[in-house]
Amino acid sequence: MSNGDTISPGEFKHFKTVVLNEGILLAGFDYSGKSVNVLNVESMTEWQKIVQFAEQSAVIKGVVLVSLKEGNFCAGADLEQMHHAQRQRSFQEMEQLVIAAHRLFDEMERSPKPFVVAVEGACLGGGLELAMACHVRMTSTHPKTCFALPEVKLGILPGFGGTQRLPRLIGLPEALGMITTGKTVFPRQALRMGLVEGMVTSIPSSVRTLERVQKETLVQAAIAQARVLCSVPVRRPPLRASLRFLSGPGIRTLVCRYARHQVIKRVRHFYPAPLRAIDAVGRGIGLSILEGSLTVEKPLLLDLMASQISSHLVGLFLAGEEVKRNIATIPAAAARVGVLGAGLMGSQIAGQLAEKGYEVVLRDVSSDILAKAIGRIHKAQIAQVRKRIILPSDLRYRMMRVAPTIHIKDVSLASLVIEAVSEKLDVKRAVLAEFESEAHPDAILATNTSSYTLADIAASAVHPERCVGLHFFNPVAKMQLVEVVRASFTSDMALAQACSLAKRLGKFPLVVHDGPGFLVNRILSRYLAEAVIMVAEGISVLRIDTVAKNFGMAVDSGHPMGPLELLDLIGLPVALHVLTSLAVLGSRIESRDALLRNFLPEGKPPLTFWKSEKENPQALDAVANYRRANPSEAGPITDDILHQRLFFPMVDEAVRCLNDKIVEHPWQVDFALTYGIGFPAFRGGLLTWARQTMTQGQVAQELESLAIKYGKRFEPCPALSNGGW
Ligand code: NAD
Asked: In 3D, which of 672, 678, 560, 680 has the Cα closest to residue 312?
């Protein structure tokens, strides 16, 4: 830092600065060496120097903070640094960073010189806490702009004063809603709730230099705000009366108690972070922001940061970054995509594509099916209008991007075609033949099959190198994982096209090798098949699903779910198909087809295990009929054994997948099952859980005992005892 009233160019590594007319210091955050801005010791030290310079300089009258990263304001704290601290079990540096952040944000807030922030792109965690310490927040309608305090999803709480500032800014109930769920808020919602003071429509410049961004409407609006505030004392607008009432001392306890109740309903007691965050908010309200931050928020944060749950969640988050970083993508990815099949999956995939700006040609065999699919896409999109995430005009543009058709030749202009037709091998092969005769010679066919291998489908393809798997999970909008399946014949170009598309849809494209059930369904099938076998033995649906839910299955989705409810969601015909086709793996995949076929009455929709949150009486009748025809008695069973029967075969199958090189690393299994089937994230993933809760060889021993009592399907693979997973 130079003395006097200037900052020398090149003085900072992560910020660019310029002093504009009337003493406005424009600071552009541009973290060096990362695609997003992060807050760590280095960047915070530089920001502190800028703040102190502005404070001390007679020339500087106000500060405007902007981001020079495209689509990102600031991603928050540096999680790699935090994970390193968690692995070393050394939190001194993190504590120093937190204390420094509290003091710095307090200094900004109390400064007589206005700090105005122009937020464009994702403003998350510490990034939002930095923005909240400014006097005025301006934002734009840029599609990537969003706000969130997602710390609870990492097992911690907002630790740069977020639990103290947010309730004062938007009121207690809304703040608790944001903090305890980590939910994302979009610009219009942020404006309505008072999280930002102004919003403009602004076109970001593609060249992100200070000179260029100064010309953007958003930055000009922020500079104008700063100039106005230089001449009047900086004052924060008061909370609306209704919010003041709900944040007042009398009602505060009730509001916090309600929030606590909601958290427990959603995540039970599996996750301590949201409850600690409520404590931090509730206890901090009577204190000054700095005191609350240092004496309430900080100790709670450090406790949570040192927990194994947080370490697991941060590890999984970083695994996701790794998955996105290490894939081959191509810059000139497809802009027009064909989707074949407008059923449950095809319609959802088409909706997601339209949402992300793709031109979609959606093909099915009849206009009726297409009309229903368009209705479903419209319904999903209109929900976003109601929540004020998008405008009605956005909805219209999105709908206009989907062109329904019954003619295959309409798909011929698409450079990538996703096949989501009925799960029948002859239909899939016929569709591939049609594609080869009609599509552009360079076009790629990505199949969404769940039970056939790529090799099965492309057996008689003329150009198998153009075939790749793109296995989405249901519901497509919610499930973040996509398995990108590579067969020995798949070309690098096909793989890169598929990965690029999945990444642009905001998914995690995990590359897996071709094989029955790929990775996720292969492991999942052991869990689902065992649950059905137990039903056939007479164990209640409620008990089986309760054991799985007590372990935390699908708790992260907000809808805890056992294997039988999951079977209902997947749909019995698809599930039966997967289970039957995986019989090729050997006798360990035992499917009780005869029982499940009782669930498929002729000419009627399939029965489900659950109906209106109760066991379905018709399903129970179907089970009773099956048991009369196939009497079997497995004897009494403890919850412990029931649990082992559900989860240990999955561990066995995961190790077999590693042996078969479906994926290379155990962390990929952990990641895939967490994001693909809802294995509870707080356990760190299937293999991490098994390694950390059992001694080497224990899973294999228990499986051997199960094999003696319940059958050969439990016999463990040799690699399970050898370790190395
Ligand atoms: P679905 O039965 O709901 O839809 C299939 C659609 O394909 C139907 O609308 C049918 O009319 C249409 N179709 C049949 N032949 C066609 C052709 N020649 N051209 C165009 N359309 C044709 O099935 P779904 O559940 O959407 O599954 C589709 C694919 O996705 C399957 O391969 C399935 O294994 C896979 N998948 C399903 C799930 C799930 O949870 N249901 C999850 C992942 C993957």
From this structure: 680
74-102: average pLDDT: 96
Counting ligand 1 atoms within 8 A of each CB, the residue from 344, 478, 524 with the most, and so the one to mutate, is 344
71-96 mean pLDDT: 96
**Cα distance between the two ends of the chain:** 51
Structure tokens at 55: 């404070």
DSSP string, 260-310: HHHHHHHHTTT--HHHHHHHHHHHHTTS-HHHIIIIIIHHHHHHHHTSHHH
Find out whether the beta carbon of 510 lies less than 6 Å from any atom of ligand 1: no
pLDDT for res 10: 64
Query: Interhelix angle for 344-355 vs 392-400, to 10°?
Result: 120
Average pLDDT over residues 221-249: 79
**Ligand 1 close to Cβ of residue 569 (< 6 A):** no
* Residue 306 CB less than 6 A away from ligand 1: no
Q: Is residue 19 in contact with ligand 1, taking CB distance under 6 Å?
A: no
What is the residue type of 280? A
53, 7 Cβ separation under 8 angstroms:
yes
d(CA 329, CA 499): 6
The whole-number pLDDT of residue 332 equals 67
Residue 506, pLDDT score: 93
Task: Give tens-digit pLDDT for 362-382.
Answer: 999 999 999 999 999 999 999
**Residue 648 to residue 663: CA distance in whole angstroms:** 19
Task: Calculate ∠ Cα 506-507-512, nearest 5°.
Answer: 150
Is residue 1 over pLDDT 50? no
User: How close is the Cα of 421 to the center of ligand 1, in Å?
Assistant: 4
Judged on CB neighbours under 10 Å (0-12, 13-18, 19+), 152 is buried
Amino acid identity of residue 42, one-letter, is E
In the chain the domains, ranked by start, together with CATH numbers, are 9-306 (3.90.226.10), 336-515 (3.40.50.720), 521-721 (1.10.1040.50)
Q: Please, which contacts does 607-611 make with residues 24 or more away whose CB atoms are closer than 8 Å? A: 607/572, 608/568, 608/572, 609/535, 609/541, 609/545, 609/564, 609/565, 609/567, 609/568, 610/541, 610/545, 610/564, 610/565, 610/568
Residues carrying an active site annotation: 450, 471, 483, 521
Separation of CA 650 and ligand 1 centre (Å): 27
Give nearest CA residue, ligand 1 atom 15: 421
Amino acid 214: pLDDT: 94
The pTM is what?
0.92
* Atom of ligand 1 lying closest to residue 578 CA: 34
Q: Could you give the percent of the chain with pLDDT greater than 90?
A: 86
Q: How far apart are CA 126 and CA 591, in angstroms?
A: 49
| Model confidence pLDDT, tens digit, residues 395-421 | 999 999 999 999 999 999 999 999 999
> Cα(423) to centroid of ligand 1, in Å?
6
Question: What distance in angstroms lies between residue 484's CA and the mean position of ligand 1's atoms?
Answer: 18
The answer to whether the CB of 344 is under 6 A from ligand 1 is yes
**Residue 579 in this model has a pLDDT that exceeds 80:** yes
**Which tokens in the block code for residue 197?**
């003071």
Q: Is there an atom of ligand 1 within 6 Å of 421 CB? A: yes
Choosing from 361, 423, 476 the residue with most ligand 1 atoms within 8 A of its CB, the one to mutate for a pocket test is 423
The residue whose CA has the least distance to atom 44 of ligand 1 is 450
Q: What is the whole-number distance in angstroms between the Cα of residue 448 and the centre of ligand 1?
A: 8
